[in-house]
Design brief:
Largest sheet: 7 strands, mixed
Structural class: alpha/beta
Shape: globular
Number of strands: 13
Distance between the termini: 46 Å
CATH architecture of the largest domain: 3-Layer(aba) Sandwich
CATH topology of the largest domain: Aspartate Aminotransferase, domain 2
Radius of gyration: 21 Å
Number of domains: 2
Order of helices and strands: HEEHHHEHEHEHEHEHEEHHHHEHEEEH
Low-confidence stretches: none
Length: 393
């Protein structure tokens, strides 16, 4: 390796360590679950996972992945338009579309590649205007940057008046694409979906919602932010992941009108030049959807656990950010302090991540708790007590 390059990288890593912002990666030695074995230590309570329904180690979900592996093998060994797709891909995509309320869906190897396949493909000329919420996920930000011919505008977070003003200030575009997260991953709040739907109707715009943290989590039965607001079937494009509530493995999707899905099959670079989703992931995700549909009480339990945890934090003297998702952030302020606090919590058997700049703005570092339907109240209570002890200690 080039010695100068190596030394430059090491100096940057040393600077992160000196500032107290160097990230440490832990090793889980058991299935992802509310309680895991981590770094050789048993009984670590996980409150930093997207395993919102506890499906990552559900026996039926695991067995479905094994069956798909046996039936189809490891994968297609090439991209879909060359080697085709498996029947399990078709079954999964039909189930996704039915669940989120669209005509069709298309799977990708991640939601990141789904987003990067979607946005540059449909915003591919100078006659397209993109309007993106300032707190949208990094995959949306990067995908918008790849739409180099389109006009790209950022509107203030969840500010519908600012969105209207920016639409008014940019007339004459033939295609207007409004993009928002459904659940904002660092804040835990929901997009103002009813207002966004109305604005898009008023201005003949297309609404794209990334519901990665909403699918399986938000809404009475876990169908996402559209269900929460009574707008199933009213969203033009929904993107999401299979790597959070829907089994926790990998994979993402774009759901929308059938012509959109067919167009992406023909044009999206991350579809044309990436292998199809591995069969085992498709099989386990399909079973996760079946389990979710058959067990709506899991979603109710998740909502109840989240409300209980928020209230317990408040009673302990903390001020978690308001929200209706399973993401419960507690603002710390300083990045190094948030990371230090997360490390101290791990010593108490609580695994939760501290986030700081550049993931969140300077001065807004936080501990982000993520609640699961599979958590017990005792486990959630232990986390509150550990945080309280560190605060008072």
């Amino acid at each position: 390796m080039n010695a100068k390059f190596r030394n430059e990288l090491q100096q940057e890593l040393d600077a992160l360590a000196q500032a107290g912002t160097l990230k440490h990666f832990h090793t889980i030695e058991s299935p992802q679950a509310p309680v895991v074995r981590m770094d050789g230590k048993d009984d670590v309570i996980v409150l930093s996972s997207n395993n919102y329904l506890g499906l990552a180690d559900h026996p039926a979900v695991v067995e479905a992945g094994i069956r798909a592996l046996r039936e189809y093998g490891a994968g297609t060994a090439s991209v879909r338009f060359i080697c085709g797709k498996f029947a399990v891909h078709e079954h999964l995509e039909a189930a996704i579309a039915d669940w989120v309320g669209t005509e069709a869906a298309l799977t990708f190897v991640s939601c990141w590649t789904a987003t990067e396949g979607l946005i540059p493909t449909i915003a591919n000329n100078e006659k397209t205007l993109i309007l993106s919420d300032e707190l949208n996920h990094a995959c949306i930000i990067d995908a918008c940057r790849q739409a180099t011919k389109a006009r790209r505008v950022i509107f203030r977070h969840a500010d519908v008046d600012d969105l209207r003003q920016k639409l008014e200030a940019n007339p004459g575009y033939e295609r207007k694409l409004v993009i928002t997260d459904g659940v904002f991953s660092m804040e835990g709040d929901l997009a103002p979906l009813p207002d966004l739907v109305q604005i898009c109707r008023d201005y003949d715009a297309i609404l794209m919602v990334d519901d990665s943290h909403g699918t399986g989590v938000v809404g009475a039965t876990g169908r996402g932010v559209a269900e929460h607001f009574g707008l199933l079937g009213e969203i033009d494009i929904i993107t999401g992941t299979l790597g959070k509530a829907l089994g926790g493995a990998a994979g993402g999707f774009v759901a929308g009108p059938r012509p959109l899905v067919q167009y992406l099959e023909q044009k999206a670079r991350t579809q044309l030049f990436s292998n199809a989703l591995p069969a085992t992931v498709a099989g386990s995700a399909l079973e996760a959807l079946r389990q979710l549909k058959a067990n709506p009480e899991w979603v109710r339990r998740l909502h109840e656990n989240t409300r209980w945890f928020r209230n317990a934090l408040r009673e302990a003297g903390f001020s978690p950010l308001e929200g209706e998702s399973a993401i419960v952030p507690v603002i710390i302020g300083d990045t190094a302090e948030a990371i230090r606090l997360s490390e101290e919590l791990l010593k108490h058997g609580i695994f939760v991540t501290g986030f700081g700049y550049p993931v969140v703005p300077e001065g807004k570092a936080r501990i982000r708790f993520q609640v699961s339907a599979a958590h017990t109240r005792e486990q959630l209570g232990r986390a509150v007590e550990a945080l309280k002890a560190l605060k008072n200690g």
